[in-house]
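Run log, item B.
One chain of 292 residues. Sequence copied directly from the ordering sheet:
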Amino acid sequence: MIQATHLSADRLVVTDGRRQYRVHRPWARLRNGREFGRISQIAVARDGRVVVVQRDAPAVLLFAPDGELDNTWHHRKLDSVHGVAAAPDGSLLVTSFDLHQVLRFDLDGHVLQELGTESGPRWGEPFNHPTDVAVDPRNGDLVVSDGYGNARLHRFDREGRLLHSWGEPGSDVGQFACPHGVWVMHDGRVVAVDRDNDRLQIFASDGTFIEQWRGLCRPMDIWSDGETIFVSDQTPSIVALDTAGRVVGRARAFSVYPHGLWGDAGGNIFVAEQLPSGVAKYEVKAAANNLV
């Protein structure tokens, strides 16, 4: 691993082992000197806007590619948001973890779909404080990490019908100690962030265990461009892995908790930071072998 860091505001540079990034923080800017609430997660919508969800009203904030605030909205069911995912159809999927639901919105805040029962937690079944949701790029299925109460993953079809669930509390393979994030690869593999077991677990689309990847410290979130898998952890760092699970690089994160991350089509990485709350943009700069 190679890492370069420069502390002046315009020369803060890190590498994930393959690329260099110029780090801009704070990147997202609120108006009139306002500060963020408790930021939870981040995603990049199909239209290129960066979506930030926070645990204070307004829960959803959308930023233009230059970091300027473009729009905000709130919904009464989003007082305890945790995860957000940008779906290929342009919608947003948000986990409301204390109301035990996954909600699909359009970019203007209209509810399109609801999974789970509002204020109706269920042991072993959807949901009991869900943490994250991912979209299967092959067919639009949803995979939900059901995370703070249950220790389960659930797969739904695009219409919201439950297909199957797997997982239970523990540290053996196929068990979880807080599944905190989830991603579905282009080949259908489900990668679950098993936070308190310090690992990623990889499953076939039907929930069959394939393998586990270690070498992480309390992993928090996951995003992939199809070639590289990025994971935020509590080192704090952003870890880059190849699709076989080999660590190919590690870059410093600059807050106590890099809670969420997502990337855009240009290879830039956006990090939802906690303590303090803010957004960092890791702007792709060059290949790592071009270090100066």
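Observations after the first pass:
- Residues 1-8 have pLDDT under 50 and may be disordered.
- Residues 1 and 249 are 5 Å apart (CA to CA).
Flagged for discussion on Thursday.
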